[in-house]
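[job 4471] stage=fold_predict status=RUNNING
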Amino acid sequence: MKKKIVLATLFGATLLMASDVVNIYTSRHYDSDKIVYEMFTKETGIKVNVVQDKVDPLIKKLELEGKDTTADVFMTVGFGDLYKAKQEGLLQPISSKIVDENIPSNLMDKDKNWVGITYRARIVVYDPAKTKVEELSTYEDLATPKWKGKILTRSSTSSYNKHLIAFMIAKDGEEKASSWAKGLTENFARSPKGNDRDQAKAILAGDGEIAIMNSYYMGRMSASKDPIEQEVAKKLKIFFPNQNDGGTHINLSGAGITKYAKNIENAKKFIEFLTNVEAQEIFSKYNYEYPANPNAKTADVVKSWGEFKASTLDFDLISQSVQKAQSVADKAGWQ
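[job 4471] inference complete, writing structure tokens
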């Protein structure tokens, strides 16, 4: 009898523990997220446990753990990685009227295996003292001879550039995208190195004239304690490519409930919270991202860059080309 009571007590404690937590696997590593987690816990009483790592190890971890995983939610900064997680059967559909009301259908998976949370634009940054804005137009134009020795960007192995190449494949076809990648590579001011911030800094250093990078880095540099990064944010301007040709490519950050989540209701509440106006505005204010919820206000710094037309090209179509993207880059000599 005593044994049964002890087992019942332990079982009850396990259920209570499970009902008070949500376990997150995330490749995001931002202060904005920590603020949102704390807000969620304060409002719901549900503790957020976080495992943070690069996306590939997290996906591998989910695969190896299978039914034994403790992860309830998978979050990452690349829609191609969300697509991969879905294709490998690591996610399950989210059924939530709140999410449906908060996030436009074009910013979530067709089967609702993942939901867009924020996005960044893949922009061109330039120094108006060296480059006239009228010279800039499209991603395609960056592969023309007029930009010979002027373009800065990071390695093709970076997720951001792989997604950009995949975008070009989905948009223009593999043959044209291959020619574009070759022309772009021939226009590099130097061999790709460093992160996105380094490309912007290199413009001020005189190593090149324009840089391909993510928009949110300009916001982060404006708030940096590094005087060089502050100068970069003040002197350089943002240009949104392809405004008259389908719109600028965006990198979507999102979240999904894992297939073997043990705390499904908590996971759903957590994702619903990520999509509400308050959380969305925190992401924009502290990490300079664009909110996926159209009712949320963008941070003043982000707003100062001006409005732009984002591409509505199907995310699945782009994601299907991510694997091809590296091959296209390799053939073009894009390191």
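[job 4471] summary: The chain has two domains: 2-119+250-298, 120-249+311-332.
[job 4471] exit 0
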